[in-house]
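for the recovery benchmark. tokens below, seq after
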């Protein structure tokens, strides 16, 4: 049996997908990049943008047509809003929250069991081994899924409360998508309720993963030679606040990782995303400055540069607070790169409010800004407000802000020319004969080299040229 998974959205969804793959392959399923070869088709969905949900509807409509000529099971999980879930229940065979992933083998077994009657039909598309939840078919080529035995199993989405069942999900060892880069989820859910955001309605309230589990997973990855590890959460720097008195703070977690890095003498970079400015304390920045293994790159979402807009977004911080954080970063970690998230065209955004966002792009000179054009999401508070900025105006503001960002990223990257930098090699670059890499600050780099054995290892390059979003260099022997 083969499976095919489509992963949409953020790094958290990618990380979730790695655990889904581990469960499926533990059942004997084999991954395929060709969806038409699969008997099990799944989506790790993202309700943050309407475009992502539209993709899900288009895919499942196509897959359901295939059921007229082949036996297959479809499922959806990930970030799914209640309104989308109700529609998905009628379109997918299995709908479940990620916290119920440990029960997926049982769901599949109940929905599509291998029956004795179906032995009369051969299906050459099946692989050499099928493992259901509690049985093994020794001669799977003689079996096929029996539609008559299908038992619908629809599981609802978690309501707005801490999902303690996520602990069982975290106990699943992921099938890492790389041999040198990995994600470690440290927290799930969100308590912030930004008016534009659907996460509290899709993942529930904040739940912190036990710190000893996080450190053990990190030690395991470092021992296996992983070089880049990213701590994931909707609000990583609120880690531990839901377990005050029984769990350490985010600064404490970073310090624990930093101490391990010092003692291990291993060379690796640890990143984290995404923090919230409201919980970004000085002690977090001080810990990052202190330990070499904590990468000198900070992703600090601002969303808007206007105080009135930040109030409407319910961000619970003003630009004064944000500016203090950035100044502390630049004072304690002057070499750090700064990334952010920004929304343009939010409900009621005036020209003046947008211009204030343009101004902070010049003030903070971000090394990267992930800019999104606002789209209302059902369930989020702003979905009740008029989406009153025309799409063309949103696009225009997006392009203006992007051009402003690229002006400053080019200035920064040009300052790197002539410098010798350590980079992590990720694979072949689009430019033939070159390898692609990134610096500790996650600046994309390329250099001429045909030695693929360097992928997954550190290299040293001297920067020879710069572009707005990347640098190029020569390998230092």
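predicted aa per position
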């Amino acid at each position: 049996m083969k499976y095919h998974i489509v992963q949409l959205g953020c790094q958290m969804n990618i990380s979730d997908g790695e655990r889904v793959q581990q469960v499926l392959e533990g059942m004997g399923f084999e991954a395929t990049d060709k969806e038409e070869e699969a008997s099990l088709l799944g989506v790790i969905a993202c309700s943050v943008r309407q475009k992502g949900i539209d993709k899900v509807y288009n895919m499942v409509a196509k897959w359901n047509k295939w059921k007229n000529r082949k036996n297959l099971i479809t499922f959806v999980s990930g970030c799914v809003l209640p309104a989308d879930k109700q529609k998905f229940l009628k379109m997918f065979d299995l709908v479940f929250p990620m916290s119920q992933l440990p029960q997926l083998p049982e769901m599949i077994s109940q929905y599509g069991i291998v029956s004795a009657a179906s032995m009369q039909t051969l299906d050459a598309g099946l692989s050499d081994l099928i493992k259901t939840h509690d049985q093994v078919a020794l001669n799977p080529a003689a079996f096929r899924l029996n539609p008559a035995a299908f038992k619908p199993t629809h599981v609802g989405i978690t309501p707005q409360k801490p999902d303690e069942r996520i602990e069982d999900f975290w106990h699943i060892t992921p099938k890492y998508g790389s041999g040198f880069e990995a994600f470690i989820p440290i927290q799930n859910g969100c308590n912030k309720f930004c008016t534009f955001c659907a996460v509290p309605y899709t993942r529930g309230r904040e739940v912190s993963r036990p710190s000893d589990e996080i450190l053990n997973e990190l030690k395991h990855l470092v021992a296996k030679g992983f070089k880049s590890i990213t701590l994931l959460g909707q609000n990583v720097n609120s880690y531990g606040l839901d377990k005050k008195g029984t769990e350490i703070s985010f600064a404490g977690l970073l310090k624990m990782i930093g101490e391990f890095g010092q003692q291990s003498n291993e060379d690796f970079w640890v990143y984290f995303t995404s923090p919230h400015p409201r919980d970004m304390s000085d002690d977090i920045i001080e810990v990052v400055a202190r330990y070499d293994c904590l990468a000198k790159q900070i992703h600090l979402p601002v969303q808007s540069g206007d105080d009135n807009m930040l109030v409407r977004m319910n961000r619970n911080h003003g630009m004064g607070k944000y500016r203090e954080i950035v100044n502390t970063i630049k004072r304690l970690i002057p070499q750090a790169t700064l990334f952010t998230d920004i929304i343009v065209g939010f409900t009621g955004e005036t020209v003046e409010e947008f211009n204030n966002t343009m101004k902070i792009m010049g003030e903070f000179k971000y090394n990267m800004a992930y800019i999104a054009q606002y789209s209302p999401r059902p369930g989020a508070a702003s979905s009740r407000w008029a989406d009153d900025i025309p799409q063309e105006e949103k696009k225009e503001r997006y392009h203006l802000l992007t051009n402003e960002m690229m002006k400053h990223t080019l200035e920064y990257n040009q300052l790197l020319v002539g410098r010798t930098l350590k980079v992590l090699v990720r694979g072949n670059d689009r430019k033939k004969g070159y390898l692609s890499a990134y610096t500790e600050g996650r600046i994309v780099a390329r250099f001429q080299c045909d030695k693929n054995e360097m992928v997954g290892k550190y290299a040293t390059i001297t920067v020879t040229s710069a572009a707005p979003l990347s640098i190029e260099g020569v390998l230092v022997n």
